[in-house]
Design goal:
Elements lengths: L1 H7 L4 H9 L4 H24 L3 E10 L5 E10 L5 E10 L6 H14 L7 E6 L12 H7 L7 E4 L1 H9 L5 H13 L11 H11 L9 H23 L7 H24 L6 H9 L8 H18 L21
Parallel strand pairs: 1-4, 4-5
Antiparallel strand pairs: 1-2, 2-3
Helix pairs in contact: 4-5, 6-9, 6-12, 9-11, 10-12
Protein name: General transcription factor II-I repeat domain-containing protein 2-like
């Protein structure tokens, strides 16, 4: 506590003195922590009971003891038209994680925290089988429950991006990379940048990997590295708090449009957007770079993204009747 005050109120010596003189008995600390928790929970429940619109985000996973856990985040518009997001609860589920189990846990949390169910405008899930699908799954059960309004179900955008990225694979390159990483774990995912030191290290160890000197294998590795770096940047840009669904959709579709530019870059063999590929191609000027396979890979990735995110295009005109807010707020 003293450290917190020293940061928040560095000039308030009187307050710091009072904090330092406070008793630090275990039971005293426990009571104060409980009082802080109760105050935070009371404020959250009060604000939720008066909010104009609510959005939920659900994620079901298991802990280190293999116990299923349901985490519930809430984002709401307060009466002062302020958008707030909080962790609402972390619930331990029963031994089964059926749609009924998740709905029962969700109903209990919403009722306990005075969440106005009628003001729910969207519910985001991780896309697990128990969450989406038939009437026996969570979303189907919520849709069938007349106490819930006609909310907008949303599949987690980051999860979708991860599934789309799994399409882009180069197993013949990764098999060699993983074998070398098993020998030298320090090379990690900076493999391409450490290519020359890795070659030297393998020679010193007496390990033979002829692929490290094969132009076509190196070209494939370079192309794979370039695209993976773009996918990693996309993933990071989707993370963080206070991200609106409209912003996330714009990021995804912006990347989708960028893939068209990548295809043209590969077609002209300029490689302005593929620095690793350009580096290897310049190292072997007498070796022609066949880019047709690379263009097909980019095209397939674009189709995968379009397939998994196509429903987001219909959100552009969705408007909530509550205060004229667009669904994009959530």
């Amino acid at each position: 506590m003293a450290q917190v005050i020293s940061v928040l109120e560095p000039e308030n010596k009187k307050l710091q003195k009072l904090i330092n003189e406070m008793p630090v008995a275990r039971h005293t600390i426990e009571r104060r922590i409980s009082a802080i928790i109760a105050d935070i929970l009371n404020n959250l429940q009060t604000n939720l009971s008066k909010c104009l619109a609510v959005s939920l985000a659900l994620d079901e996973s298991t802990d280190i003891k293999d116990m299923p856990q349901l985490v519930i985040f809430v984002r709401y518009v307060s009466k002062d038209l302020e958008v707030v997001e909080e962790l609402l609860n972390l619930v331990t589920l029963k031994n089964t994680t059926r749609g009924y189990d998740i709905k029962e846990a969700l109903d209990g949390v919403l009722q306990k925290n005075a969440v106005p169910i009628g003001n729910i405008v969207s519910i985001a899930t991780d896309g697990a089988p128990s969450m989406t699908g038939t009437k026996q799954k969570l979303i189907g059960l919520l849709k069938a429950d007349i106490s819930y309004p006609d909310f907008l179900p949303v599949h987690c955008i980051i999860h979708r991006e991860h599934l789309a990225a799994k399409y882009f694979q180069y197993p013949h390159s990764m098999q060699i990379v993983l074998k070398i990483m098993a020998i030298n774990k320090q090379c990690s995912w900076q493999f391409f940048e450490l290519l020359d030191p890795i070659k030297k290290f393998m020679e010193e160890k007496g390990k033979s990997f002829p692929e490290l000197n094969e132009p076509q294998w190196l070209l494939d590795l370079a192309f794979f590295t370039d695209v993976v770096q773009y996918l990693q940047t996309l993933n990071k840009s989707l993370q963080g708090k206070e991200k609106l669904i409209s912003d996330l959709a714009q990021i995804v579709f912006g990347f989708h449009n960028k893939l068209k530019l990548f295809t043209k870059d590969l077609q002209t063999k300029t490689f302005a957007h593929f620095k690793c590929l350009k580096k290897i191609s310049e190292s072997f000027p007498d070796i022609p770079v066949e880019t047709e396979e690379y263009m097909n890979k980019i095209s397939g990735l674009a189709e995968e993204i379009n397939r998994r995110f196509n429903d987001l295009r219909s959100l552009n005109t969705g408007v909530s009747p509550v205060g004229g807010f667009s669904f994009h707020v959530f």
